[in-house]
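User: Can you recover a sequence for this backbone? Please restate the input before giving your answer.

Assistant: Of course. Working from this structure:
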């Protein structure tokens, strides 16, 4: 039993060393692959993101890298629970803190959408001019004079 547990721990260490997750930003403009230790292994930017300016690029890349790291950490927690059992995983969470997806349900705050522009106020209609022939049509509907 002890030998089996040692093999499971060694396998867990090998698995955790290569655990990486790929995540796409909710906007779809960036994809990142990261390890549980935060190592960024791949980053793909959509060309439309580059037109939004340096600040937007930095924000989206940072959020996507954080999401990928959190996903890799979560995968590590899941693998640890499978290898060591739920009881040990709960003990590790008590020491290390909650797993990323348990700690927050929405890790990325959705972008603030600008309010639609107000519709121009309607212009009042010009008042109708009193027409002296107003009922001329009804007196002679066929236009005969």
């Amino acid at each position: 039993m002890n030998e089996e547990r040692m093999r499971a721990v060694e396998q867990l260490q090998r698995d955790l060393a290569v655990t990486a997750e790929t995540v796409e930003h909710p906007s779809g403009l960036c994809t990142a692959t990261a390890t549980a230790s935060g190592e960024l292994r791949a980053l793909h930017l959509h060309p439309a993101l580059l037109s939004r300016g340096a600040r937007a690029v930095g924000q989206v890349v940072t959020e996507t890298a954080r999401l990928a790291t959190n996903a890799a950490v979560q995968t590590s927690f899941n693998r640890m629970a499978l290898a060591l059992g739920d009881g040990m995983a709960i003990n590790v969470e008590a020491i290390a803190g909650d797993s990323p997806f348990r700690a927050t349900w929405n890790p990325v705050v959705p972008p603030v959408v600008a309010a639609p522009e107000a519709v121009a106020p309607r212009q009042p209609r010009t008042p109708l001019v009193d027409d002296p022939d107003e009922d001329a049509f009804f007196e002679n509907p066929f236009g005969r004079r």
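That completes the design. The first strand starts at residue 20 and ends at 24.
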